Amino acid sequence: MNATHEMIQVINLRKKFGRLVALDGVNLTVRRGQVIVIIGPSGSGKSTLLRCINHLETPTEGEIWIERQKITGNQRQLNAIRSQIGMVFQHFNLYPHLTVLENVTLAQRIVRKIPKSQAEAIAMHHLERVGIADKARFYPAQLSGGQQQRVAIARALAQDPKIMLFDEPTSALDPEMIKEVLDVMLNLAEEGITMVVVTHEMGFARAAADEVIFMDYGKIIERATPEVFFSQPAHERSRAFLSQILSH
Amino acid sequence: MAVKETIEAKQQIASPQLTGAEIREKIRLFPWWTVGLIGVFVLTAHLILTRPSYQDAFNFIRAGVGVTVQTTLVAYGIALVLGLFTGLGRISHNIVIQNLGTLYVELIRGIPMLVLIFFIAFVGVPAGVGLLNQIGEWFSQIGLQLIAQPLIQLENSSVPMTTRAIIALSVTYGAFQAEIFRAGIQSIGRGQMEAARAQGMTYWQAMRFIILPQAIRNVLPALGNDFVSMLKDSSLVSVLAVRDITQIAKLYAGRSFQYQEAYVTLAVLYLMMTVVLSALVKWIERRVRQDERNA
Ligand SMILES: Nc1ncnc2c1ncn2[C@@H]1O[C@H](COP(=O)(O)OP(=O)(O)OP(=O)(O)O)[C@@H](O)[C@H]1O
Ligand SMILES: [Mg+2]
Prior knowledge:
Number of helices of chain B: 13
Protein name (chain A): ABC transporter domain-containing protein
Radius of gyration of chain B: 25 Å
CATH class of the largest domain in chain A: Alpha Beta
Membrane topology (chain A): Peripheral membrane protein
Pfam families (chain A): ABC_tran
Keywords (chain A): Amino-acid transport, ATP-binding, Cell membrane, Membrane, Nucleotide-binding, Transport
Number of strands of chain A: 10
CATH architecture of the largest domain in chain A: 3-Layer(aba) Sandwich
Distance between the termini of chain B: 19 Å
Number of strands of chain B: 0
Strand order of the largest sheet of chain A: 6-7-8-3-9-10
Family (chain A): Belongs to the ABC transporter superfamily.
Largest interface: A-B, 29 and 20 residues
Radius of gyration of chain A: 18 Å
CATH superfamily of the largest domain in chain A: P-loop containing nucleotide triphosphate hydrolases
Oligomer: heterodimer
CATH topology of the largest domain in chain A: Rossmann fold
Bound molecules: adenosine-5'-triphosphate, magnesium ion
Largest sheet of chain B: none
Low-confidence stretches of chain B: none
Number of helices of chain A: 9
Shape of chain A: globular
C-alpha cells in the first residue's frame, strides 16, 4: 500500500489530551519532495499533527508511516526514524550551553556515530548553506533571533533528514528577521526537500507550497494548491480564516 | 547587583574628589560585618598565641580537623551520586522508581538529623549487614563462592563508627541533594528535551548531553551551600564517638575542665572553615553568572 513516492502517510489520526480532542481523524499523504503548508486558527491542532508525525506526541489512535516504516507502536525504531526527520521549533530550542558548531554536530556524533572531524565538515557545510558559518564558534545567546533560527535549521539539516518539519518558525521573530529565515526555507523548498510547514506567512505559502492544508477543530477542512486556495477557497471556514488573516 | 553597577558607573564619571553624598553611600555599602568577623579571628589567634591554656586546647582539637574534613568530603561525594540518581528517579516516568525516590526523600525530611544518625548507625547498618549476609547465602547456594564468602563473613560489629557516620551523613544529604537536582532538571525548559529527542537522541543521551549540563550549572551554588551545611552537620556524628573536632573538643573539655578554651576554639575552627568555603561558593556563583551573561 505504500508506494515509494509516499514520504509521510497519516491514517485516521486521533489525539486526545484528557477529554480534549486535539486531532479528530486526520488523513494526510505527503509525497517525496512536496512542500505542504498547514494553516488554521490557534488551537486547531497544527502543532499536534506535526508533533505526532515525529512522535513527540503519542497518537491516541491511527497510524503514521514514514516512507515504508510504521512509526506508531514502533518504540524500537523510534530514535532511528526520528533522526531522519528534522524539526524546527517556534522558539528555536538551540542548546544554550553549546556553541553553534557543537549544536550542529552533537546529534550527528552521538546518534549517527559520525567521527568529529567529519561531523564538523558536515556542520560547516550546512551553516554555510544558511549563511551563518562565520558564527560557528559563538554561543546561541550571542546571536539574533533570525540567526538562531537559521542555526536551528542547519542543525536539523545536518541530520540528513528525509523530511523537514517547521512549526511556526518565524512567529517568534522580529519582523526584520523573518525574511532571512523565509529565504533559507524557500531555498530548501527549491532544492526538493520534503517539507511540512505550519506558518502564517501567506507569502511563503504562495511562493513555495505545492499544497495548502487548512485545519480547524482537529480536522483537515480543505486541501488545495495555493492558487486555488487563496483565490477560491471551497469552504466557508477557510474563507472566514483567510479574510481575517489577510486583513491585517 | 544593580546598585553596585550604578556605583561603578558613577565612579567612572566622577572626579577623584568624592562628594559627601558619595562618601556616605560608600560607608553605607561597606561590608562592616567582615570587620567583625576578622576581629573574631584576630582575637582568637591572639588568645592562642599568648595564653598557654588556649594553645593547649588548640593543639589538641586541631587534630580532629582531618576527620571532620574527610568525613564531610567522602559523605558529600556519596550524597552527590545518591542525590543525582534519586533526583532522576523522582522525575522518572516509571511510577515504581518515582515513588521509591519520593518515599526516600520524604522519610529523610520527616526525621531530625540527629535521630537519623542514631537510626542509620544502629538500625540501618545492622539491617544492611544482615541483608548482605542473606545475599551471600544466596550466592553460596548457586555456587558463586567467590562473591558469597566476603558477604557472609561481614559482621555488624566490624563496621567502624566512622563508616556508619559517613553512611548516615550521605543517606541524609542524598535526599536533600535529590531535591536540588530535581529542581535543577525541572528548571530546564521542556523544549530542550523535545529538541534532543526530535534529533533521535535517547532519553539518557538527552539527559547526559543536554539537560544535566545545564541543570548542574544552575544548581552549583545550591550544591555548594549544601557542602557548607554538611560540614557543620558533620559535628553531629560526634554522638557516634567519631573523633571529629566536636568529639575531640568535648573530650578535651571533659578531661581538662577548660570548657571555655575548648568551645571557643571549636566554634572558631568551624567558623574559619565555613567562611572560606562560603567565599568559594560565592566565587563559583559569580563565575556561573558571568558565563551566563557572556554566553
Ligand atoms: N500537551 C498538551 N496538553 C494538553 N492539551 C494540549 C497539549 N498540547 C496541545 N493541547 C491542546 O490541543 C489543542 C491543539 O493544540 P495545538 O498546539 O496543536 O494547536 P495549534 O493549531 O498549533 O495552535 P497555535 O496556532 O496556537 O499554535 C489545543 O486546544 C491545545 O490547548
Ligand atoms: Mg502551534
